[in-house]
Amino acid sequence: MTAFILKRLGLALITLWILSLIVFFVGQILPGDPARAILGPLAAPSAVKVLDHQLGVDKPVIQQYWDWITNFPGTSHQYQAPIGPILTGALGRSLKLAVFAFIIVVPLGIVGGVFSALKHGKWQDRTITVVGQSALTVPEFVSGIVLILIFAVWLKWLPVSATAPPGSGFFTSLKYLILPVIPLVLILFGYIARMARVGTVEALGSDYARTATLKGLPRGVMIRRHVLRNSLLPTITVVATQTGYLIGGLVVVEFLFRYQGIGLLTYNAANQKDFPMLEACVLTIGVIYMLVTLIADISFSLLNPRIRLKAAE
Amino acid sequence: MRGGNDELDRLRGERTELENHYIDELVSGRMGRRDFLRRGSMIGMSTGLLGAILAACGGSSSTTTATGSGSGATPSSGKKGGTLRVAGVTPTGAVNPLTLFDAGGLLMLNQTGEFLIFDSNLKLALQPMLALSWKPNADGSVWTFTLRPNVTFHNGKQMTADDVVYTFKQLSDPKVASNALSAFTGVLTPDGVKKVNATSVEFHLESPNGNFPYLVSSDNYNAIIVPNGTDFGKWQKTFVGTGAFKLGSYTQGSGATFVPNPSYWGTKPLLSGTQFKFYDAQQPMILALQGGDVDVIAQFTPAGATQLLSGSTYKIITLKSANHRELSMRNDQAPFNDAKVRQAVAYSMDRTGMVAALLSGKGSVANDSPFGPRFTSTDTTVPQRSQNINMAKQLLQQAGHSSINATLFTEQYQEIPQLAQAIQQNAKQAGININLKVETQTNYYGKATFGNSDWLDGQMSLVDYGDRGVPNVYLVSPLTSKGTWNAAHFKNSEYDSLVKQYVAALDLQAQKQTAGKIQRLLLQETPIVIPYWIDGLTASTPNVGGLNPTSIAQLYLNTASMG
Questions:
Q1: Cis peptide before A73 (omega within 30 of 0)
Q2: I want to staple B348 with a disulfide (CB 3.0 to 4.6 A). Which of B313, B342, B392, B417 is the partner?
Q3: What is the pLDDT of residue B425?
Q4: For residues B427 and B434, is the Cβ–Cβ distance under 8 A?
Q5: Higher pLDDT among residues A26 and B533, named by residue
Q6: Which residue out of B83, B173, B442, B456 would a mutagenesis test of the A interface target, given it has the greatest number of A Cβ atoms within 10 Å?
């Protein structure tokens, strides 16, 4: 197991380094100019030149990359402030939103999917499948606005913004996150329920499930011990792959609900050609993505020893 | 009446030649009261004096003295206390007085910072802020400003001429990354900023400029006065200024709070504090106002704001503004090298329909020149161009075309993509087939230099221009032969010399005469099309009063209250 984890960590580090190279060099060919982004399109060319020099973006690209590596995470061009505190603040907020969404959607999706599989072909199955698939196709922007209009503007039950006032307690912060979490739950429920359903249906029809039933195991024990253990493997993969989306891809939700998460920070950094910030954001999201994938792989191997043995070979 | 004449004679005796000229214009009826207030304030006549002259001329003065109110807004009679919550656009970068250019950033700047002069959109006049008075020399090449005494910065230091000199030397220095260089290049260099004494500063200009006070006013949003030696890059840690509010807290990308400045020189704020919340788009701001999350939207555009504009649930402040869109055509390339083709494009446009559909009526039609209702120097006798498809077709035929094809480059910004479609549909009726290329702002502006920018190189190009108090920038940069933003590639020596005359003129009649010539020349040549002017809009809940916004997204709150 240790060898397996070490091997995965080594690969993750190499991937991160390649990722940093790609982001940095692809960023160089983006149109626009960092100083022009800060000063605006109508700034005098002399001012742009002076600021480009101050930012060091007129140096050779290799040197810029070296400067960035040696000063990581460095200073944001856009905000003219150290990146560390800005990034950790945004990451903390994104994680809070993502964890809240996961806590709701993962059990809900699995229960929904398994229940749907157990009622395979019946109206309950069809209802859960249709509702889940329909919700998946509604963009966050649409569901978000509808939710705001109903619960914040019309009923005034929940706040419009996702950002709680400074110094708010845990439950107040949670109340502010309810509205933004719903569009995410709507989107993810369909994915997770579908995977759980398919896995469960497949496992229920397998030989070992039939054997377990025939040897007289109660249905509940058979499902818990034999079906779920196998049927949840693909679901874990789906949950892991959605982490990237939940941490860095919530630009629309963050936009709509005024929530300074890492998604919005990355988007703005790319728009403003703020390379140090963009690099730091992408690498942070990359690290999280890899960690979650690693955790998923470990969970996978715990559930299925064949994978562990194969990977460690 | 004789008493009025005696009083006027007395007032005249102490006035300069130029001031007396304006009084003559007022007495003869050639200049209206509003024009007199605006022009008089520009050459440094105090609002009290302007009011006294108007009263002596036989009318009651409608002006209020600005001496004690800071931003010059009429103090609100609302109740004291309360924290006003304001929705503003997220600043795109650091709040650095030297470099910022965006609406979110300049809204932050004006919360604690003040200018020498305040360009009041509500009163349509320049009002003293940190300068008590200002005067030009005979040809307008040297302007002398007398500073307000007993003004202290938020750090306790007294404001003097040294602070003003430092601020403007930095803003006008080509060796510094100053955004104000776009206004000061060719007008002011650091050597031209001179301290006369502790309360007086002279600006020696590169050439005469009749509208110079606007360049040191709130119109030039970078020009807040900061303490001598300020490190602009670190300014956002303190927000040090002289304004009615001082910094409570500033959180990057999220918001800011401000508290009253107890030692403010002007009207003390009624509010116990202000809280700004940042939004990245207009729609969430509107939802926040509707949901009771904020009390005010500092500035919004009519496009996509019908919820606010229809009905009477919210208070809307509408300001006449010179904010506009400009369609340029490559005057140096076929088929737009023929003025008739360019005129055909202009005649195809349904401007009234555009104002109604794209701006919900919150704007007015424009006449293909930078002169509009915002500027007193505009010659209103120049006929307005309106849609005439037959005329457009005839002009095209006279130019030897039955139809033409062209490509229009533009940016994803506010209602501009919809305007581009409207232009495309209107032009099609006249036989002009336009292919649209709508790009992100980064792609569209490119490096913003010729040869590296779709904005400046495109065959047709549709761009936005923000509000200015005087049309100088619109006249020079996009239209003179050496203009740095001359996307039309328009080169006309007569135009260049008329603009030079206009910029130098101190006298309103001279400016109006030249403006009329420029307007007629631009109608004839039509290097650009300006379809409409867009009003500046601020929204609030009905209990909020005393707001003092400007049409470039500033918002002064020392007179604001929550009823």
A1: yes
A2: B392
A3: 97
A4: yes
A5: B533
A6: B442
- CB neighbour list of residue B20: distance below 8 Å, 6 or more residues apart: B12
Pull the structure tokens for residue B418.
Answer: 């919809």
Rg (CA), chain B: 24
Q: Is B412 within 8 Å of chain A by CB?
A: no
- pLDDT > 80? residue B4: no
Question: What is the percentage of chain B residues whose pLDDT exceeds 90?
Answer: 70
- Token readout for B406 is 């062209």
Which chain B positions have a beta carbon within 8 Å of A45's beta carbon?
448-449, 484
What is the pLDDT of chain B when averaged over all its residues? 90
Q: How far is CA B46 from each of CA A20, B38, B63, B72, B216, rounded to the nearest angstrom?
A: 60, 11, 10, 12, 17
Alpha carbon distance B75, A299 (integer Å): 67
Chain B residues within an 8 Å CB radius of A44: 174, 178, 181-182, 185, 484
Name the residue among B174, B249, B477 with its Cβ closest to that of A46: B174
Chain B partners within 8 Å of A30 (Cβ): 442
Contact (CB, 8 A) for A135 and A186: yes
Q: Most B CBs within 10 Å: which of A150, A153, A253, A259, as the mutation test of the B interface?
A: A153
Nearest Cα residue to B132 out of B248, B206, B48: B48
> Which segment, A40-54, A150-164, B66-80, B257-271, is predicted with the most confidence on average?
B257-271
Using CB atoms, pick whichever of A32, A80, A156 lies closest to residue B442.
Answer: A32
**Confidence grade of residue B235 (pLDDT, cut at 50, 70, 90):** very high
Q: What is the pLDDT of residue B39?
A: 75
CA distance B163 to B169: 10
H-type helices in A215-274, by residue range? 219-222, 228-248, 251-256, 262-271
DSSP string, B212-244: HHHHTBTTSTT-----TT--GGGGGGT---SSS
Distance between CA atoms of residues B550 and B548, nearest Å:
7
Helical (H) or strand (E) element with B137: none
Residues 230 through 289 of chain A touching chain B, CB cutoff 8 Å? 255-258, 260, 264-265, 268, 271-273
Q: Hey, CA dihedral for B414, B416, B419, B420, is it positive or negative?
A: negative
pLDDT tens for B142-152 read 999 999 999 99
- The structure's pTM equals 0.84
Q: In the prediction, which pLDDT does A232 show?
A: 81
**Sign of the C-alpha dihedral, residues A274, A39, B100, B86?**
negative
pLDDT at position A27 is 78
From chain B, pick out residues whose CB is under 8 angstroms from the CB of A40. Answer: 101-102, 179
Instruction: Note the pLDDT of residue B182.
Output: 83
What size, in residues, is chain A? 313
Cβ atoms of B11 and B37 within 8 Å: the answer is no
Select the residue of A79, A81, A159 nearest B293 (Cβ to Cβ).
A159
| Higher-confidence position of B502 and B447 | B502
pLDDT confidence tier of residue B376, bands split at 50, 70 and 90: confident
- Which residues in chain B have Cβ-Cβ distances shorter than 8 Å to A43? 101, 179, 181-182, 448
When pLDDT is cut at 50, 70 and 90, the band that residue B65 belongs to is: very low
Other beta carbons less than 10 A from residue A199's beta carbon: 24
- Tell me the average pLDDT across B55-61: 61
Q: Within an 8 Å CB–CB cutoff, is residue B464 touching chain A?
A: no
Residues of chain A where predicted confidence (pLDDT) is lower than 70: 305-313
Please say whether the beta carbons of B524 and B339 come within 8 A: yes
Q: What angle do CA B181, B463, B99 make, to 5 degrees?
A: 25
B420 vs B414: CA distance, rounded Å: 12
Query: Which residues, 6+ apart, have CB-to-CB distance to B90 below 8 Å?
Result: B104, B253, B278, B279, B280
Q: How many CA atoms lie within 13 A of B331 on its CB side?
A: 21
